[in-house]
Amino acid sequence: MRYALLDSCDPVRAATLFYGDAATLWLDSADTDHPSSRWSYLCIAPIATLQVRAEELSRGEDGFADRADEVRAWIRSTERQRIAEGPPFQGGAAGYVSYDAAPLFLERFQSRHMPRSDLIEFNLYDTLLAFDLEGQKTWVMSAGLRAANAEEDDALADAKIAEVLTRLGDTRRAPDVDVPLGWS
């Protein structure tokens, strides 16, 4: 795992720079009292995607069990290096489970509607920005992976970090955001 440590970087500005990229994911805590709320993450450029669509599960519960086993194996595929004093999340799987997937987890939950969305999507991220909101530092990290089961490549990690730093420094790429971003 390689990293660059920046003095500060606005997570909202960074999110606007990467928002058009496929599968960019912004993880931000709304619970200010939680110990992990000091961290926000912008996960970019996933190296792999695993989707479970409703039609894939038409063969019954075994279909979901097979895919769940696949997700678990994919997440645990290779032990990765960690930065000892780094952020809690240093890359890995992140995604969502949709409302339509509730019947897969809760026997009592039944819907009269056919699911029309992907039920589950997880991406494997080896490159991300971790914003320490208390310490006013930003970690730009990459393991330099080409695929889920690949070995870490320091040269590739350095190239991915350099690309992120270039984008963060390029004010021409920042789109105008008309809608104020924030929560109250």
Describe, in plain words, how this protein is organized in 3D.
Helix content is 23%, strand content 26%. It is an alpha+beta fold and 184 residues long. It has a single domain, classed as Anthranilate synthase (4-Layer Sandwich). Strands 1-8-7-3-2 form a five-stranded antiparallel beta sheet. A three-stranded antiparallel beta sheet has the order 4-6-5, covered by helices on one side. It is globular. The two termini are 36 Å apart. The relative contact order is 0.24. The C terminus is likely disordered.
Q: How many strands?
A: 8
Beta percentage is 25-35%
Helix-strand pattern, N to C? Answer: EHEEEHEHEEEH
The chain-level structural class is: alpha+beta
Q: Report the mean per-residue pLDDT as an integer.
A: 81
- Strands side by side in the biggest sheet: 1-8-7-3-2
Radius of gyration: 18 Å
**Can you say what the CATH homologous superfamily is?**
Anthranilate synthase
| Highest CATH level, the class | Alpha Beta
User: What is the number of helices?
Assistant: 4
Number of domains: 1
CATH architecture field = 4-Layer Sandwich
Determine the N-to-C terminus distance. Answer: 36 Å
**Biggest β-sheet, characterized?**
5 strands, antiparallel
Shape: globular
Helix content: 10-25%
